[in-house]
Specification:
Blueprint (H helix, E strand, L loop, with lengths): L10 E5 L3 H23 L3 H24 L6 H4 L3 H9 L11 H21 L18 H34 L5 H7 L1 E5 L12
Antiparallel strand pairs: 1-2
């Protein structure tokens, strides 16, 4: 039990994120930043591709972990139907979710999809001068141009989703006083007294 000011509700902590999920999250953050840095600032496209291969491995791991991992990491745990999403939007303060809430789950899925598109198109992308993706030789010039264009435009879509993700984190941190970043570091989430949430069943 965490002791609080008498004017504020008491809180307790529950386990929510396992170690593999947390490592994936922060390695993905570092990897995406490194991809931008090597492509747009340092112009090190060889290193850019190596980091891309690493991120592909991370995404493959996350998909597998989303099937066989701990409770809160599994897709079936946080992917909800339209009814649950509508209910959450109507009464967001009455829904206490261990892990991602229904709206947060949509954000996670959108980010994963856009990252997969970015990595997939990067395998075919070419600057028409020196650097090209490892699969570009297996596609026509027209297809390579198309996928390169998608790769460039999709990056801005990814930036937009990251911006929304950061805005949501800030909202929860400063408006709802829920430190989501700390939870992704420690694996534990602070729950207000009166909200019944059990520890997640974590493998690690």
């Amino acid at each position: 039990m965490i002791m609080n000011d008498p004017k504020t509700p008491a809180t307790y902590t529950v386990k929510v994120w396992d170690l593999p999920t947390r490592l994936f999250h922060w390695l993905l953050v570092i990897g995406i930043f490194a991809m931008w840095l090597t492509a747009d600032v340092l112009d090190r496209l060889g290193l850019h591709m190596v980091i891309g291969y690493t991120l592909i491995g991370l995404i493959v791991f996350r998909v597998l972990w989303g099937i066989w991992g701990s409770d809160t990491a599994r897709f079936r745990h946080f992917i909800k139907g339209p009814g649950s999403i509508t209910s959450y939007l109507r009464k967001p303060d009455t829904t206490v979710a261990l892990g991602h809430n229904p709206l947060g789950a949509l954000s996670v899925l959108a980010l994963l999809l856009v990252i997969i598109i970015q990595l997939g198109t990067g395998l075919f992308a070419s600057d028409q001068i020196y650097n090209q993706g490892p699969l570009s030789d297996y596609a026509s010039d027209k297809m390579v141009d198309l996928l390169t264009g998608i790769h460039e435009i999709n990056f801005y879509v990814l930036l937009g989703l990251i911006g929304l993700h950061l805005a949501a984190i800030a909202f929860y941190q400063f408006k709802k006083h829920e430190p989501l970043v700390l939870a992704m570091i420690t694996g534990k989430r602070v729950i207000k007294e009166g909200e019944v949430v059990q520890n997640a069943h974590l493998h690690f």
